[in-house]
Amino acid sequence: MVKQLTVISGKGGTGKTTITSSFAALAENVVIADCDVDAADMHLVLHPDTFETNDFYGLKVASINKNMCVGCGNCATSCRFEAIGRYNVIDVYKCEGCAVCEYVCPVNAISMVEKKSGEYYCSHTRFGPLVHAKLGIGEEASGKLVSDVRRRASELASEAGSDMILIDGPPGTGCAVIAAITGTDLVLAVTEPTVSGIHDLERVIGVAQHFRIPVVVCINKYDINVELSHTISAYCKNNGICVVGMLPYNRIPVDAMVEGKSVMEYKENVFSSMIRSMWFEVSGRLLK
Hints:
Layout: E1 3-9, H1 16-26, E2 30-34, H2 43-46, E3 49-57, E4 61-64, H3 74-78, H4 100-104, E5 110-113, E6 116-124, E7 130-135, H5 142-160, E8 164-171, H6 175-181, E9 186-191, H7 195-210, E10 215-220, H8 226-238, E11 242-247, H9 252-258, H10 263-266, H11 270-287
Helix pairs in contact: 1-11, 5-6
Keywords: ATP-binding, Nucleotide-binding
Protein name: ATP-binding protein
Domain 4Fe-4S ferredoxin-type: 60-84, 86-115
């Protein structure tokens, strides 16, 4: 059975991609899924060679048949999003797909149609297959796109006989995060020792626990505020959550990223040794 690990955080920039790409370098027979579809960046490290592109269709939007429209204006006055302007022209960026206009049209001139909202890709990388995506600017339904990425990753894992799927999850606690963690075997929550970091960590742990998914924690840049790091550790201990890693503030992840490498490929050092130890802890929990 393929095991799935999702790396998440309460906000962006905590080090999810740095850790996930490092885990990918250490893992064997793995499929990688970049589920941060609003701001995907795993490709910057893995340099994927795409072999499959799929269109993604999110919410349906309204379309008016000009040959049937009688210009009554019912649609424009009924649209609470003000998506229908002069001459009954629909602004697809404002349309929320509620279909009220279709309902109130007396001559059935309006229908809801599919709209391409992005793409998702399958690629070869030096660490194994990567499924990643690009959501269009201002588009909705990121959770649905995350589900498509995970579905395709599961298919590739099944085809290749992979042991594990590594998921670089989106930040926050919204629909995309829920789609990224639902049904996974373990969640790794990455946090930083700040007041907002503690607050965000509590929220993401709450989401994982709501779906009864085991969660472990990594405190990144723990030494920028040792006191708050101790507070986070105490919170985790009191709630039966294991802190699997405490990474120091270091320039190595930035330097590695600039060269398009994972931390594990950049150079052997104390920082990479800590990530290696964390991987052994996480993979041991995942595969036992």
